[in-house]
Write a structure and sequence with these properties.
Length: 552
């Protein structure tokens, strides 16, 4: 509910601050007094675009601020989704700077106009004769019917299921498209993979093979060199081993004469031991060596296979070939598993569709049961509002297609007069009739749903007498469940307001400004008497005003 409104430097409003209570609030004033300015200011709070031309003094900032009590609106999740601080008493502020730039804040947090608009529709619902076409839309008609059908839980489940269905169908479409693309490459990828798998690649294999190939390819030279080395070491005449032994013997005989000689003797013993070990290793290598033309050919062929694969795939190592093999294996595996994945998704889609069909059936049953009650209530209210022959023909038709809120289409036809043919509302109902239908629908909704603050902007135009009183009673009844504003020219409605405000113009410092004031009892009598009889208030008009206010 709107608890307070502050307007500064907007159009003809210089400074205005007003508080509002719950219930029915009526606003009256002469044509041109500035009632539309209040709606314009509220429109900015609800996310409409700002216009520098609406600022009273272009050198000053225009500020409009509204305070809303929102504890009963279940908006915590909305505030969380928009990253806003939730407060039971929320303040919305809109600023228009002299530069023309506009800013918006919710509880002092900057917000976009899109976010502000999304919040605004949850707080205030403005209706005028020019804004009643909403009642002709199928979405709105379903909204009213669903309020009576009490199918919120089923509809919420259906919408979640429909969102999931769309995601699954999109996933299937992506997989099918991928399958088509992968299938084109599948055979080639599978061929390359098979070739790499048959190569039985091993990390580090290339170095080992190249070393073995060099050894086998040069076996004779290696044998000759090794044999020569062993001969030099072990020759009885000039062998290195015998010479070292002679040196070792000489040094050992003089090792006791000094530490230096002892060290040299020890080092020579180490050299002799190392030479013996080298000789043994050379002999072992020589004994192992033998020419093997067959193995040489096999190693050469293996190296050629690896070299060809490297050239083919433009890589320089076995490790890169192994990585490529893994990538191809993944692609081939994905292609082979896509059919299975698609089948799994289609099975999941069938289950979701079955659940949606079940929910749609339950929703249809509840709607079908509530539809006659909606028609009866509408016709009864419209009869009281001066449309005794107004009647509706409403029917539901199940469809195969999954629609946003179920699987059915609602035909909502209207006839205002006896014998007149039925037609869709926007074609057969006049502006005044749509206004009354809208009031009737809002009256019904107020009993079944938590509605935002309702503002009726001269929606009662063209109504008078007993019908005006019935409309006033209807608004009063609605205000038991929500805050209702009525900007009106009808004394019957003005008198029903639990709070009554007057919009008027006055000249201050050679400038015309719009003011808004809360009327006391005497002020209400004067205002309503003037609405009845004009500026020259007669005694009968005063008596009539007091009667409407139940002061007699």
């Amino acid at each position: 509910m709107l608890k307070g409104l502050s307007i500064k430097n907007f159009a003809l409003i210089e400074q205005l601050q007003v508080s509002f209570d719950a219930g029915l609030i009526t606003i009256t004033g002469e044509t041109g007094a500035g009632k539309s300015l209040l709606l314009g200011a509220l429109g900015l709070l609800l996310g409409k675009r700002a216009d520098l031309s609406s600022v009273k003094d272009n050198s000053q900032k225009c500020v409009i601020e509204g305070t809303f009590a929102i504890q009963h609106y279940n908006l915590s999740s909305f505030f969380e989704a928009e990253a806003l601080d939730y407060e039971d008493e929320t303040i919305i502020r809109r600023e228009i700077l002299p530069s023309g730039k506009s800013r918006a804040f919710v509880n002092d947090t900057p917000v976009t106009l899109q976010s502000l608009g999304a919040l605004g529709v949850k707080l205030i619902d403005i209706h005028s004769q020019h804004q009643t076409l909403e009642v002709t839309t199928n979405d709105f008609q379903f909204e009213v019917l669903d309020a009576l059908a009490n199918a919120d839980r089923e509809i919420d489940s259906y919408k979640r299921g429909l969102d999931l269905l769309k995601k699954k169908e999109k996933a299937v479409a992506v997989l099918v498209s991928s399958q088509e693309n992968f299938t084109k490459e599948y055979e080639y990828n599978a061929f390359l993979l098979k070739e790499l798998e048959e190569a039985q690649l091993q990390k580090g294999e290339l170095i080992t093979l190249e070393e073995r190939y060099e050894q086998l390819n040069n076996v004779e030279e290696i044998q000759e060199r090794l044999s020569g080395a062993v001969s030099v070491i072990s020759s009885e005449e000039i062998g290195v081993a015998d010479q070292l032994n002679t040196i070792k013997s000489n040094l050992s005989k003089i090792a006791t004469y000094s530490n230096t000689l002892a060290t040299l003797s020890t080092r020579m013993q180490s050299v002799a031991i190392e030479l013996d070990d080298i000789q043994e290793s050379l002999t072992n290598e020589l004994e192992k060596l033998e020419a093997d033309p067959q193995q040489l050919e096999e190693v050469g062929q293996r190296l050629q296979v690896l070299h060809n694969l490297q050239v083919k795939h433009k890589v320089t190592s076995i490790e890169e070939l192994i990585d490529l093999k893994d990538q191809l294996s993944d692609k081939v595996s994905k292609t082979e598993s896509l059919s299975e994945d698609i089948a799994t998704l289609k099975s999941e889609i069938e289950k979701i569709q079955s659940q949606l069909d079940d929910l749609a059936g339950k929703i249809h049953h509840k709607r079908k049961k509530a539809l006659p009650n909606l028609v009866a209530e509408l016709e009864n209210i419209l009869k009281a509002l001066g449309m005794p022959n107004a009647s509706f023909k409403a029917s539901l038709h199940l469809q195969e297609k999954y629609l946003p809120n179920g699987k059915e289409v609602l035909d909502f036809l209207f006839s205002a007069n006896k014998g007149a043919s039925y037609g869709v509302l926007k074609k057969v109902a006049s502006g005044g009739e749509l206004s009354r239908i809208m009031i009737a629908i809002k009256a019904i909704l107020s009993r079944y749903a938590q509605l935002p603050t309702l503002i009726f902007d001269e929606i009662d135009t063209g109504v008078s007498g007993e019908v005006a009183q019935k409309m006033a009673d209807l608004m009063m009844d609605m205000s038991k469940n929500l805050q209702v504003f009525s900007i009106t020219h009808l004394p019957q409605i003005a008198a029903n307001g639990q709070s009554h405000y007057k919009v008027f113009k006055e000249d201050i410092n050679n400038a015309t400004v719009t003011q808004l004031k809360l009327l006391n009892q005497d002020g209400r009598v004067q205002e309503i008497a003037e609405m009845i009889g004009g500026k020259n208030i007669s005694e009968s008009a005063l008596l009539h005003a007091k009667a409407l206010l139940k002061l007699n």
